[in-house]
Design goal:
Helix content: 25-40%
Oligomer: single chain
Structural class: alpha+beta
Order of helices and strands: HHHEEHEEEEEHHEE
Length: 241
C-alpha cells in the first residue's frame, strides 16, 4: 500500500510538471496582448505573398461565415518563405489571437480576433445543453435578450475581457438561439471619449476596427439611437448579421 501511494504521488508530480510545460505558452502575458511588431511582420508577409502569387494567404471558409472570422490567415502558406514563424501570440503558437485579413478586396489589413470570446460562448452553449434551450431573461431589443444565469444554476455570469478597455463584457442571446458578446460598453465609451456623432443606421463597430488591432468578433451589428447611444441593429428575419 505504501508503494502504491508513492507511485500515485510520483504520477501526480509528473502530471503537474507536464501540465506546466504544455500550458504556459497560453498563459504568458506576451501571448495575451496585441503586438505591433508581430502585426507589422505579418502585414509585410501577406503583401509579399500577394505580390508573388496574386492571391491572399487565407483559409477557405463558407461564404456565410461571420465577416470577422471569415478571412483567417493561413500561416502554412507564409512560413518559412515570407515569415520565419507564426507570431508568438497567435493561436498556432498557443496565444489567444487568430490573425485575420480585414477588407481583403480593397485594403487587405492584418487584424486580430480575441479567442477568449469564442471560449466564453462555447462554455455558455455547453451550459445551455442542460436546459435544452437558451435561458432568456430580460429583453434588450425585440430580438436580443440578457441571459438568466440563475436558471443555469450559476451564481455569476460569464463575461469576456474586453480587448479595448478594462471592462468585462457580458454575453447576450438572440431569439434564434445564438450567443454574442455585447460591446455596448466599449462602443459607448469610444463615442463619448472621442465626441463622435455617428449616423443612425450605420454599423458603428467599424469605429473600433479602424482604431484598434482587434476586431469586435462574435457580435451583432450596432448603430446609435436618437440619444447617440449604442443600440443593437439586428433583425433575424432579414438574416443580415
Amino acid at each position: 500500500m505504501k508503494n502504491k501511494w508513492k507511485l500515485l504521488f510520483m504520477f501526480m508530480v509528473v502530471a503537474l510538471i507536464l501540465t506546466g510545460c504544455m500550458y504556459p505558452a497560453e498563459e504568458r502575458t506576451e501571448n495575451q496582448i496585441p503586438d505591433q511588431v508581430q502585426l507589422d511582420g505579418v502585414q509585410r508577409a501577406i503583401e509579399e505573398f500577394q505580390a508573388d502569387t496574386g492571391v491572399l494567404p487565407i483559409k477557405t471558409r463558407d461564404m456565410d461565415t461571420d465577416i470577422f472570422i471569415k478571412y483567417l490567415i493561413d500561416f502554412e502558406k507564409l512560413v518559412p518563405k515570407y515569415l520565419a514563424n507564426s507570431p508568438g501570440n497567435s493561436y498556432e503558437k498557443g496565444g489567444i489571437f487568430q490573425y485575420i485579413i480585414w477588407d481583403p478586396e480593397n485594403n487587405p489589413t492584418v487584424k486580430l480576433v480575441d479567442l477568449r470570446a469564442a471560449e466564453a460562448i462555447r462554455n455558455l452553449n455547453i451550459r445551455f445543453l442542460t436546459t435544452k434551450y437558451p435561458t432568456f431573461k430580460d429583453p434588450i431589443t425585440t430580438y436580443v435578450y440578457s441571459i438568466d444565469y440563475e436558471k443555469l444554476g450559476m451564481d455569476t455570469e460569464i463575461t469576456v475581457p474586453s480587448p479595448y478597455s478594462n471592462n468585462n463584457l457580458p454575453l447576450v442571446v438572440s431569439t434564434d438561439g445564438d450567443v454574442y458578446v455585447d460591446y455596448s460598453i466599449d462602443l459607448n465609451l469610444f463615442i463619448k471619449e472621442n465626441n463622435l456623432t455617428p449616423t443612425p443606421g450605420e454599423d458603428i463597430r467599424t469605429l473600433l476596427i479602424e482604431e484598434y488591432p482587434v476586431v469586435p468578433a462574435y457580435s451583432l451589428p450596432y448603430t446609435v439611437d436618437e440619444n447617440n447611444d449604442p443600440v443593437f441593429m439586428f433583425d433575424p428575419t432579414k438574416k443580415d448579421k
